[in-house]
């Protein structure tokens, strides 16, 4: 498969992730707009409050990721995440000459996902829903947020290594297991950091918000440092544990 085709697959895959994942968060916030909140930490609505909302958002991510892996995984590997690409390169499972093209493709796809969602919904997608942008929630410090993102991405990458990278993994389950893992992580840490686990996933909404006069870039390092550290640590640990 040519690099051009794999580049295109990464653009399309990351577009799908960012349109449907953060898009679900936007719709949740727009539905809840104007409703009374029990506290500033809770964005939730309905009988289950915030937990129910984060589960729904997590499932949107899970299904989008599973769809991308099953449809495009055989073409590009469906990284759709710079942290995954860097982690695989760090253990020699991905060629260094293709790291930058993959990351560029992922950022382009993420930007397209957010900008087209904004075009579909209108300005309220940003002014009310923030385009699903991630940021630390009230009471969560910068260091806490980086640690949270690192732990969440550590789990994600460990699962990727076990079900998708390891040649001994049973075939056919990678998309389902990886998607559900992301959904579970979002349900747990969504109300702490927004649960990005992915620099590109955060980049897209930040870019779209910037065009609407909303500046969140001071938080961007959280979603670069945390995911990359967590993914690289998990890849190296799995490599160590799986060696015969």
Question: Can you give a write-up of this model?
Answer:
The chain is mainly alpha-helical and 244 residues long. The protein has a single domain (3-242), classed as Glycerol uptake facilitator protein. It has 9 helices and no strands. Helix 1 runs antiparallel to helix 2 and helix 6 (142-165) runs antiparallel to helix 7 (174-193). The chain is globular and about 55 Å long. The protein starts with a helix and ends with a helix. The relative contact order is 0.18. GO terms for molecular function: channel activity. Pfam families: MIP. It is found in: Membrane.
SSE pattern? HHHHHHHHH
**What is the CATH C level class, in words?**
Mainly Alpha
Largest sheet: none
Structural class designation: mainly alpha
Summed up, the helix count is 9
Number of strands: 0
Q: Give the amount of beta strand, in percent.
A: under 5%
Q: State the helicity in percent bands.
A: over 70%
**In whole angstroms, how far apart are the ends?**
31 Å
Low-confidence stretches: none
CATH architecture level-2 label: Up-down Bundle
Q: Could you state the CATH homologous superfamily? A: Glycerol uptake facilitator protein
């Amino acid at each position: 498969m040519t690099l051009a085709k794999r580049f295109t697959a990464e653009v399309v895959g990351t577009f799908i992730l960012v349109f449907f994942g953060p898009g679900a968060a936007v719709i949740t916030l727009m539905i809840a707009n104007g409703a009374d909140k029990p506290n500033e930490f809770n964005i939730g609505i309905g009988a289950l409050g915030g937990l129910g909302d984060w589960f729904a958002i997590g499932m949107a991510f899970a299904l989008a990721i599973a769809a991308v892996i099953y449809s495009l995984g055989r073409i590009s590997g469906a990284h759709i995440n710079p942290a995954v690409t860097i982690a695989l390169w760090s253990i020699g499972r991905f060629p260094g000459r293709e790291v930058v093209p993959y990351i560029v493709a992922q950022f382009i796809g993420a930007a397209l996902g957010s900008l087209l969602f904004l075009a579909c919904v209108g300005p309220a997608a940003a002014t009310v829903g923030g385009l699903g942008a991630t940021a630390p929630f009230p009471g969560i410090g910068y260091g806490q947020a980086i640690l949270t993102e690192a732990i969440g991405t550590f789990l994600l990458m460990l699962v990727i290594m076990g079900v998708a990278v390891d040649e001994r993994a049973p075939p056919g389950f990678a998309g389902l297991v990886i998607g559900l893992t992301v959904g579970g992580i979002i349900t747990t840490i969504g109300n702490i950091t927004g649960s990005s686990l992915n620099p590109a996933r955060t980049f897209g909404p930040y870019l779209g918000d910037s065009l609407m006069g909303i500046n969140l870039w001071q938080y961007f390092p959280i979603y670069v440092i945390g995911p990359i550290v967590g993914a690289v640590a998990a890849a190296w640990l799995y490599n160590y544990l799986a060696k015969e």
